[in-house]
Specification:
The protein is α/β, with parallel strands linked by helices. The protein is 30% helix and 12% strand. It has two domains: 184 residues, Uncharacterised protein PF07075, DUF1343 (Rossmann fold, 3-Layer(aba) Sandwich); 119 residues, Aspartate Aminotransferase, domain 1 (Alpha-Beta Complex). It contains eleven helices and twelve strands.
Length: 406
């Protein structure tokens, strides 16, 4: 029996590996976009996930004599080494000698001055399909700058490891922020290329931006070109070749992230400062019979929440369901609800702004509404909370299906 289990596990890993090897991200399909870059001055929005085989996209472009004039970097920076939320300034990349402009922090989109000498803008970043993972917010700003400045934008699509489901509350625009810009569920089940098409198709960008986009179409231009992946379906399992950000080290963390990231809006540690972020979470005030861990300073998490404090909570890093069932294709609230139930000082569970106004709470920005916090406080069951999401999810799915490429 044990031998059969081991065999099945190894077979799963083999099949996943073969499938992942057959998937071809848009960036690898260089013949689809290289002709549009020749004899042009190019800007690239990229980070450490922007790989073509084992090489960085920027290096491949330079090998193909593409004139890369400017690099834009998102949260965590162009090389992906900065902490979450860390402000990264502009600098010259030591390896390529190309100027890098940060689009995270005070500046969220390219300026007209940045783009004055640019002909074509490229976008190639690995997303994980979660609304509060900020790369889709960065994409939105990048699109707006491209269209307003009449620059062609080529988006190189990549697989979404959470593409297999749609779940969570749909954002109320009252709670719009950089961790949630548009009325989509927490997990929206689209690749970043499909999401870009959704933004323009539903005219969710600013009116002036949409007007500029439509004027380009009328003039016979193609302002947005999505280079799709090949050998990819919505049932594909994709094992990322490089971690998309410092605190998502593996697919288990990526699968759990939509559920566990809600702890960022509470006083609990979400596991930053451990070797298994978003798979370990807890607080010193929780019962000491629970799993014990201590967040410490680590690369990518130099100042983690509850640094050097002994915490008690949960460790789900070895849950087989994460690896083989992708967390059963839904958000899990059970740990959040149980943590609130066990927390002794419930008035301090959620982090509130200095004003004390819950409308400004980071938790509500993550949720995209004020309802989830109130539902947790009132003791509502996970089943009833999930039921309250369903009308919004179904309405979104009806919109979403118009833009699916896979």
């Amino acid at each position: 029996m044990q031998k059969r289990f081991v065999f099945n596990v190894l077979l799963c890993f083999f099949l996943i590996s073969v499938e992942a090897q057959n998937i071809v991200p848009g960036a690898v399909r260089i013949e689809q976009y290289l002709p549009f870059l020749q004899d042009k001055q190019v800007a690239v929005f990229a980070n450490q996930t922007s790989l073509v085989g084992g090489k960085h996209l920027v290096d491949v472009l330079k090998e193909n004599k593409v004139n890369v004039k400017l690099i834009f970097g998102p949260e965590h920076g162009f090389r992906g080494e900065a902490d979450a939320g860390e402000k990264v300034g502009n600098y010259t990349d030591a390896k390529t000698g190309i100027r890098v402009v940060s689009l995270y922090g005070q500046k969220s989109k390219p300026s007209s001055e940045d783009l004055a000498d640019i002909d074509v803008m490229l976008f190639d970043i690995q997303d994980i399909g979660v609304r509060f993972y900020t790369f889709i917010s960065s994409l939105e700003g990048y699109m707006e700058s491209a269209f307003l400045n009449n620059k062609k934008l080529i988006l190189l699509d990549r697989p979404n490891p959470n593409i297999h489901y749609v779940d969570g509350p749909v954002l109320d625009k009252k709670y719009r922020s950089f961790v949630g810009m548009q009325p989509v569920p927490v997990v929206y089940g689209m690749t970043i290329g499909e999401y870009a098409n959704l933004l323009v198709g539903e005219k969710w960008l600013q009116p002036a931006v949409m007007q500029a986009f439509e004027n380009s179409i009328k003039n016979g231009d193609q302002p947005l070109q999505v280079v799709p992946c090949s050998n990819y379906t919505r049932n594909s399992t994709y094992i990322l070749p490089v971690k998309p950000s410092p605190n998502l080290p593996n697919n288990a963390a990526i699968y759990w992230y939509p559920s566990i990231c809600f702890f960022e809006g509470t006083v609990l540690s979400e596991g930053r400062g451990t070797k298994t972020p978003f798979q370990v979470f807890g607080h010193p005030s929780l019962p000491n019979h629970l799993y014990a861990f201590t967040p410490v300073a680590l690369p990518g998490a130099t100042q983690p929440k509850l640094k050097d404090q002994l915490c008690y909570g949960w460790n789900i890093s070895d849950a087989d369901a994460v690896v083989f069932k992708k967390v059963n294709g839904r958000l899990h609230l059970s740990y959040l609800l149980e943590a609130y139930r066990l927390f002794p000082d419930k008035e301090k569970f959620f982090i509130l702004p200095k004003s004390g106004d819950p409308d400004g709470a980071f938790f509500n920005k993550l949720a995209g509404n004020a309802s989830l916090m109130q539902q947790i406080k009132s003791g509502m069951s996970e089943a009833d909370i999930r039921a309250s999401w369903q009308p919004g999810i179904e309405a979104f799915k009806a919109i979403r299906k118009k833009y699916l490429l896979y």
